[in-house]
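Open question from group meeting: does this chain pack into something compact, or does most of it stay loose? Before anyone orders reagents, we agreed to write out a predicted structure and look at it together. Recording both the input and the output here so the notebook holds the full record.
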Amino acid sequence: MAIHERWQKVGIARERLLMWGASDQCRVNYPILRQLGCRVEALIDDTAGKVSPFAEVPIFSGEQGLDAFLQAADMDSGPLGFVVAIGNPFGHVRTKLHALLCKRGLVPISFADPTALICSTATYGDGLQVMPGAIVHNDARIGDQCIINTKALVEHDCVLESGVEIGPGAVLCGRVRVGENSWIGAGSTVRPRVVIGPNTIIGAGAVVVTDIPGNSVAVGVPARVIRRI
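Structure tokens returned:
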């Protein structure tokens, strides 16, 4: 098998799309999506008075703005795609908005920067966002609405439940399991077979050598729980 056949390309379900969220994650996603041939037709944000970071893309406010945009949108060529551009610790918000937008008839978009590598045996759900230089290895399983940031490494047989975010440069060694809506901080390392519970934050630079319970914040080397959420 040729080397390039080990890696899969994330297929774009729709080239026309909107993004919910108009702050940092949106600004990171936008140039990648454009490079992949997507056209972002609108931004939606819950912050009143929010200004679009892109002069060419209109912004609408909240669910009411979404409905106003959809009523005026050209849907003759099929439903629009969507990306939820909201980082953690708001994975639960991404999954909630995912359900809302699907009910409106939109299609969740998964995408990966062209420099990212995703093994052909890895599987992922809807709404995956993979940033430059990230690597997802053999037989990793990734749920809906996960974000894998720049140069993060998700090793073989890891499981990321829905709403997880892996920070820039973080390393998940083999067979790590991360519960839903958890956030692995930048530059942290998780040793093999560790289980991290749901709704948990692992601090930047932490080294996780034992299981971490859900609904907690863990920091340090080795990582220890410092408070419950």
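Observations to bring back to the group:
The domain at 116-223 is CATH 2.160.10.10 (UDP N-Acetylglucosamine Acyltransferase; domain 1).
The mean pLDDT is 95.
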